[in-house]
Amino acid sequence: MKMKKSISVLLFMVMIISSVGLMGGCGASKSTDSKSETVEGTKTAGDYKIVLILPGPINDQSWNATNYAGLVACNEKLGTKMEYVENVQASDFESTFREYAERGYNLILSAGSQFDEAVATVAPNYPDTTFCVVNGSKCDGDNIAPIFPKEYEASYIASIIAGNVSENGNFATIGGFPNEPMEHLMDVYEKNAVEIAKSRNITGAKATRAYANSWDDVALGKQMAEQMIDNGADTLFVYANEVGLGSIEAAKAKGVKFIGFSSDQTTIDPNTVVASVVFDFETFYIWAIQQYIDGKLTGNTVHEAGINESIFVPVYTDNITQDVKDAVDAGIQDFKDGKVDLKAMFAQ
Length: 348
Prior knowledge:
Elements: H1 2-42, E1 50-53, H2 63-77, E2 83-85, H3 93-102, E3 107-111, H4 116-122, E4 130-134, E5 147-149, H5 151-165, E6 170-175, H6 180-199, E7 206-211, H7 218-230, E8 235-239, H8 243-254, E9 257-262, E10 273-279, H9 281-293, E11 303-305, E12 312-316, H10 322-336
C-alpha cells in the first residue's frame, strides 16, 4: 500500500510539473507571436487613428490647402482615414492636442512651426502618441518627430524665376512671422534673386523684406504690398498664408509680378502670379505617413525632404519664357550636382 501511494504521489507530481512547464512555454510563445501577428499581420493603414491640425482654412490657396492636399492623397493612396481640424487658433493649440491624445490617437500632425512650443508642452504627457509638426524644428522627445520640407530649397527655385523676370531688380518679400525657417528661405530668395538681377546688368538691384506677424490678415497683406510697390518693387514674393491673398490683390491692381509659393497661386490670376513653386505635399505626406507605418518616423529627429525628393514643382504661366524655364532647370541641376551651397546664403 505504501509503495502504491508513493507511486501515485510521484506520478501526480510529475503531471503537475509537466503541466506547469507546458503552460509556461505556451504562454510565452502565444504572447510574443500573437503581438507580432496583430501588429505586422493584421494592422492596416486605416487602423491608425490620425488627425491633422490646421491653423487656417483648407481653401486658403496657400499653406493650409497644400497640407490638406497631402491628407487627401494619403487617404486615397495609402488607405488611411486621416481626419482634420481647420482654423485652430494659437490659444487652442494645447487643448486640441490634449483632446486627441486623450482619445487615443496614434499620430497627431500639425501644420506649421507655430505648433512647436505647444507640442513640446503636451507630448511628454502622452508617450503612446506620436506628435509630428509639419515644418517643425523642435524634436526633444521620444514621441516628437517633426517633418520638414526644406523651404529654402523651394525659395531658391522661386528666386531663379524672380531674378529673371524682374525688370528693375527691386524685390519685395513678406513673411508671416520671423521664425528661423522663414528667415532662411527669405535669405536664400533675396540673395539669389538680387545676384541674378545683377548678372543681367540691372544696377541697384535690391530686396526689401517685411513681416506681417500674422497668417490670416488679408487687408494687412494688401496694405503692406501696396506700400512696397509704391516704393518701387516690381516683383513680390509672399509666404504668409491668407496674408498673401491680400498681397496678390495689390499686385494685380498695380500691375506688378507676383511669384507664388507653396500652392499653385497662378490660378488666382495668371497675369499677376506669373509662376508658382508648388510644394508637392501629396508626395511629402505619403512619404511621411509611410515612414510612420513602417516605424521609421522616430522621435528626437527632424525628418527632412526637398529638391532631391522631388517635392518642389515649378508651375509656369504663358508669361514665363523658355529661357527662364531653362534657367530654373539648370539651377536645380546645379543644386543636385553640389555646385550650390544654399546654407551659405543664410544671414549670419
